[in-house]
């Protein structure tokens, strides 16, 4: 691998993102911003479930946090928040969810704490990913997803089985 090869790949990746895609992941072809976030959450959970059995705990932890955030963003969008007005920080999503009654303040505060204290530590290797941590966070993500989806008039758009 050379610096020239990396430069070439960077250009190829940029071109791939600049082109209109023709093979879109199943279920994600929608013009509704809220449904797209919901379905991303569904896919993240499905991926985490597969990877949990394989022992990829870091990815399961990271993916579970993102799945929670996507489903909360789905509900914020469904309630009329414009995509450009979504909170720009991870903890901000939970604050807005509590303010709008999607999550209790207790849950929102603790999700913020989990994000700040454990997601970053796991991601940056200050903390170690372990099976029980991955399992518990995946369980929390799955339960949060189901709870939020059950509050929605668009629950039929959920791809989870």
From TrEMBL:
<dbReference type="InterPro" id="IPR058467">
    <property type="entry name" value="DUF8154"/>
</dbReference>
<dbReference type="Pfam" id="PF26481">
    <property type="entry name" value="DUF8154"/>
</dbReference>
<dbReference type="InterPro" id="IPR030934">
    <property type="entry name" value="Intein_C"/>
</dbReference>
<feature type="domain" description="DUF8154">
    <location>
        <begin position="1"/>
        <end position="160"/>
    </location>
</feature>
<protein>
    <recommendedName>
        <fullName>DUF8154 domain-containing protein</fullName>
    </recommendedName>
</protein>
């Amino acid at each position: 691998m050379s610096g020239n090869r990396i430069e070439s790949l960077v250009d190829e990746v940029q071109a791939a993102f600049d082109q209109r895609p023709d093979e879109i992941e199943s279920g994600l072809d929608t013009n509704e911003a809220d449904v797209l976030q919901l379905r991303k959450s569904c896919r993240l959970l499905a991926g985490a479930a597969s990877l949990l059995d394989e022992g990829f705990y870091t990815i399961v932890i990271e993916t579970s946090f993102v799945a929670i955030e996507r489903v909360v963003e789905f509900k914020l969008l469904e309630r009329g928040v414009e995509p450009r007005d979504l909170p720009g920080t991870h903890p901000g999503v939970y604050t807005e969810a509590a303010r709008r009654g999607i999550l209790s303040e207790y849950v929102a505060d603790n999700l913020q704490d989990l994000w700040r204290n454990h997601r970053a530590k796991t991601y940056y290797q200050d903390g170690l990913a372990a099976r029980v941590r991955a399992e518990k966070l995946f369980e929390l993500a799955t339960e949060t997803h189901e709870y939020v989806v059950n509050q929605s008039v668009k629950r039929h758009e959920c791809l989870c089985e």
